[in-house]
Amino acid sequence: MLKRIVITTLAAVAALFVLVQFVPYRASNHPVTMEPAWDSAQTEQLARRACFDCHSNEVNVPWYGYVAPAAWAVRYHIDEARLAMNFSEMDKTQEEAHEAGEVVMEREMPPDYYLALHPEARLTDAERKALAGGLDATMGHNEHW
Predict the structure, then answer these.
(1) What residue ranges do the domains of the chain occupy?
(2) Do 69 and 101 form a contact (C-beta atoms < 8 A)?
């Protein structure tokens, strides 16, 4: 009897896992409409490395970003990040752009949970300082923000 319950439960969990794969809530990239007028190539390179996988329309979705329910969490985080600031849509108002350098310096970005899965986004102290200063300078180039 117990064996039958375990097998039935596992089959139900497996069926549910397969079914949730059909829920079309996954991260996707939209067209880039306007990038920032970067203050330097270094700022752009650091931002692409540490920020673009959430704060742009040029996201490199990892393999688990296609498997529900992890895909839903990835999509949610990317949607929230793009709402805060999107480097690919600088023709639109970026409410929090003026805070970009500050959140980098305060180590709020990139977040620890992201760095655990993306070590290439880790910044040295010198890179963090350069990125924060570069973001401050870059965001000052446009009255749109």
Answers:
(1) 24-139
(2) no
